[in-house]
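task queued by scheduler; priority normal; single chain, no ligands, no partner chains; default sampling; output format set to structure tokens
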Amino acid sequence: MKSIQFNLILISKQNKEKTFVAEISQDDITNKAILQNFKNQKEGKAIQLGYFVEFLEFKSLNSLIAEKEMQELAKRIGCLPILLTDISKMINALKGDSSDEVEHLTNSIYFPKSGSSPVVSSLSELKIKPRNYYQIQLDETKANAIYVANYFNTPVGKKLRESLEAGAGIPRISKSQLSSSRCVLFLPDLSTQAEVIEVDSKIQQFTFRLDELRRNLWKKPKSHQSISKELKTINQEEKLENWIDKLPFPISSILWRYYATKDNSKKIEHLFHLFEAFSEFLSMLMLSALVQDEEFYKEERHKWIDKNEESDKSEKSDKSKKPKDWYLPKDWYTRATFGSWNSLTARLSKTIREYLSDNDKKEHCRSLFGNPTEAFLSMITSKGIVNVLIEVAKLRNKWKGHGGITSEEENNQRVLTLEQKLNELRKHIADAFEDTRMISPTTSSFEDGIFTFNAKELIGARTPFNEITIESLIPLDRKKLYLRHLDQTKPLELLPFIKFVEASNAIYFYTSIESKDVRWVSYHFDKEAELQQPADDQLFKALDLLKPQ
């Protein structure tokens, strides 16, 4: 994999107080802006375009970017900054392989030296061996260990941890970094910390009670009426539309059709459309990211697209190594089916999971996706989502093969079955799209290496869409769709497997191609549910990505 980062270093005989650093890219416009900023000795509007740092304090550009993003996230917290050293009594580097060897100090947290394991406040919660942690005892008059541990596991806390990492091999956080002026937290006062922990405790108790009720429901099915009454006393039922409003429009528009109808046969149809569209949507997101590095895609594509056996007879087929549900027929993309998209989604998800667990590849992989949140990456790589999609495809094939007219009772049972699958899907998606937006750019301007775009946020099922202004390091084509992660300046260009018709606010999914005519289907726009159009060059290029080598 060609993910080795190179550094260009300019050496001068003159002694300068600060060092100019920037991220050289493959985009000429960006590089020209960097060169101009270097000549003028001024900082760019984004760290990637040029930034001045103290030479001895410089760790890496990724560290600087993480620190900047952490500061932006911290603004939303609305608390005053405080150094970790101001609220801690001592920082110990632990030793040993067993928690039995560690003496727990009151009001302490356990901070991983490297990696993404959570910060915890109890020895029983350690996820890795003690020698991989620092034990930090906090001043109980200034900070609560439970609150601080949870703080380090929030987006702003994770960005702080990332900004403190250093090292060319496995990035690690040193004890000196934890004690430095860079380790800044944004904490409320002690009483507020206690109140937050109390609310969190109530939420956990509520969750525990719900789990208990669910277990009792299946132990004693005849008690369902009393359990239903108790549910109403615990809290009001959460409405599905609250979640729908957070999903990308291609998905939320279909889900809304299901939610709005009372007809069970229609509910079944809309739910099947939802799962099929989501599988294609996930494949599109992953392919769109991986193809950002064309050389990398060429080298790695055999992991998700089978090799052409006829042109490579010397090699044995690796079909036997792949699960049966991952089979992709020859030329499947010319008439893409639910099962085929599921196979591709499963292969891509597994491969990306492997990249993210590889220290040499994970940063490159994250950058290809536009540096998304952990929640987004967790969804993309979820085995649970793949399992749900495959199970639903089997249900559709089974029910479709059954044929004939189904009774209302049977339809009701099918709806309940699919709704259970929807709940599982929701659990795995969770808040993955909370800080991620699908956008359609409109007008733009360019100044000092930064593009400023007006764009529509294609989020939720309701129109008209919210219009926003964003800054980008790369130009955006108004004919294309993009995925943008919060506080990131390089939106991800999406492959044209979905089409947004602005005049009607309709989304269409690619389904098949015959000769040069393409069939597009909308799962929410009844007035024109299908489009039959000639294929353009962009779609042909996207389909080429699905062909075996």
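post-processing summary
- Confidence is low (pLDDT under 50) at residues 310-320.
- The CA atoms of residues 445 and 452 lie 5 Å apart.
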